[in-house]
């Protein structure tokens, strides 16, 4: 299953603290809604969701500027659980992440597959 998503905010810009509590920022909530909508076509067409067992996730980040490769991972992986593609992100046993420069808008290509290990 393959998703083309907008680039999420970095973890530093996704969460804030107020009165000792952690909350999602407006930018984070806005991105979640947009990404949720972008995933809708593939998720609704799939009959085998949520995936069970071991999961492989491949994430390609296309960035307009240089930033840490791990700054977006938590939001992307949590989105899979929120969208019910997987039951829990602890199912992910293989995670492959790459980043490339792009001159146009930043975006993410994320592929999710179930791994069938033979015994």
Specify the CATH homologous superfamily. Answer: Holliday junction resolvase RusA
| β-sheet strand percentage | 25-35%
Structural class: alpha+beta
| Bulk shape | globular
Explain how this protein is built.
- This protein is α+β, with helices and mostly antiparallel strands and 119 residues long.
- It is 29% helix and 34% strand.
- The chain has a single domain, classed as 60s Ribosomal Protein L30, Chain: A, CATH 3.30.1330.70.
- β4 (55-63), α3 and β5 form a beta-alpha-beta unit.
- The radius of gyration is 15 Å and the shape is globular.
- The mean pLDDT is 91.
Short précis:
With 119 residues, this protein is α+β, with helices and mostly antiparallel strands.
Which helices and strands occur, and which strands form pairs?
Elements: E1 2-6, H1 11-14, E2 15-18, E3 21-24, H2 26-45, E4 55-63, H3 73-82, E5 92-101, E6 107-114
Parallel strand pairs: 4-5
Antiparallel strand pairs: 1-6, 2-3, 4-6
